[in-house]
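**Discrete fold encoding**
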Amino acid sequence: DRSDIDLTGDDDDDDDDDDDDEMNNMDTMETHFNLPASLAELQKKLLQGYTTPEECPDSIFAPRDLSSSEMLSLWHYIAWRKSNGTVLGYNLHAKVHQHASGEEILSLSSVRKLATTLTDLEPLQIDMCPKTCLAYTGDFADLEFCPCIHKGKTCGERCYQLKKNPNAKNKPVAQMMCLPIVPAIRAMFANADTSNLLRHRDKCLQKALHLLATASGAVKYSDFGDSRVHIHHHQSLGLFKDSRDIALGLSTDGAQLTLKKQSDTWLFLFIFLNLPPDFRYKSNNVFYPFSIPGPNPPGIVESFL
């Protein structure tokens, strides 16, 4: 199943006036609706204070200055990852780089820690119902028992294990590992190439809106960015008013990892619909935030997101 989560001028002056009128009509269409307050508040919570840059960076951005050793180690690590190398391969090639450059190449564990620190892309442990009804996030964060109803009966599973010592910390009954999406988006906007590619969706949308304003709806649809549903998002729902707004496609399905039924797992994938079609479905551009253990299918999917 898949669902969507949230350039020519003429020399003739008369033609220029007509173009101005057409663009004014398009501007009127664009600003007729504003982002609903509830969605604006949700967007603010999800971004956690992060603001996407207005302009694409001219070069690689790093949160701090990196030494020559760190830069070489990161380049080596990236090449190793892209080539599906082994740990032995990493270590052997690191020795070659060290000999050729005279710079220390960090160990695999050290360079992984460095990459995690720079990107802030670190997995989180999220409390969840052991029957996979929901994750204890958002409005469910303070609950101690699962409120979901199945076939007329409340689940009632505990969020935390019973404590022998009342002063002991709460230990969740079940957890799932999740990779947060905001650090991934931040990293993509910090890269000159991907930051430009992420603006593909808005370019398609603006062209489609311009055609609607000038050709009475004679639009050729080719992708999500200029589709009827995306124009509806923009004109009727007040969404995607900024060229940097991200459209994510959610794809999920159950998978049996082994021959045992208990191995059932629900996989979740995010597809960046901002990217051009030639890029968005490549494995290194598809974001895999988490999986939900089975054997039951997830209940309130939104709580896991």
Summary: The longest helix spans residues 13-30. DSSP finds eleven helices and eight strands in the chain.
